[in-house]
Structure prediction request, 350 residues.
Amino acid sequence: MTALPPGSTIGILGSGQLGRMLALAAARLGLRTHIYGTDIDDPAMQVAHAHTISDWSDLRALARFGSECDVITYEWESIPVAAVEAAAKGRTVAPNIRALQTAQDRLIEKTFLRDTGLRTADFAAVDSEQGLRDALQSMGGRGVLKTRRGGYDGKGQAMIRSDDDLTAAWERLGGVPLILESLIEFSREVSVVAARGADGQVAAYPLTENEHRHHILHSSHAPASGDDGSAGEAARTILDALDYVGVMGVEFFDTPDGLLVNEIAPRVHNSGHWTQDAGCTDQFEQHIRAVAGWPLGSAAPKRAVVMTNLIGDDVDDWDTLARGPNTHLHLYGKADIRPGRKMGHVNRVG
Prediction:
């Protein structure tokens, strides 16, 4: 891939806060962004050079959008593959469509991870209530039932520890392709954000420790203790296996027997927001560098950072947060405050 010169246009499919921060990073490098989304008031629309407003089934609009861009990327792994293909005719897509297809289906994702030699929870496809009973028995009677597609932040999943849980889970989730995963005993949840350039160069940020509340990421501490490099090596294995270009988030369970890969996200990742104020190339600039064919920057932080998400009316404390010492406030420009909605984040340094 030939490096795109300043002034080139990067097309971003998706107009949320991740697209917003990608557009801001591109602007620092003299690159333009064209955002495709469904609402002119979305966060990324507010800061981009150009935008296209249409739905994900409008193949003509997608094709026009793609024709005005020099490379195509995306901020969200649930974008329909057909939409990406329509936008990408004659254009490079980074990360590639195989990565998108792998991450969109939990069964395909888990099978891919296992086939690359990485450890995951035990899992089984579930297509019927009896199939669920059989799979649950093989896992010792406990597991997590998940939709294979579309779930996030705890949505589309149910914990099963008894027959009553099984019946309720099937009634709530049955009717779509499902996967059952074994319950894992773990001490903490950790992640690694890593980038792979068009030349195959890989740069992994240090291990990050994450705290979730109500299934939503609350805070990330980086660098985390106990980083033996195995998470970064696992990320490299995944990136190379997918011939990936761009930034990826890889989530792990830390168990007595070592790290288990939980899931991958083929995009910049919430647990990597701390990199914006750590004194290294942040994950958003790193992604832009990768998809534009530029060399990757340093992923070695100079400062420790604690990132805290601002969920719902947490954002009402913006004035107090803005006064905090060594505190960096990042707001997403969302007008409507709703429970569970990510409105911004704050990075506390040192």
DSSP finds ten helices and 17 strands in the chain. The domain at 188-349 is CATH 3.30.470.20 (D-amino Acid Aminotransferase; Chain A, domain 1).
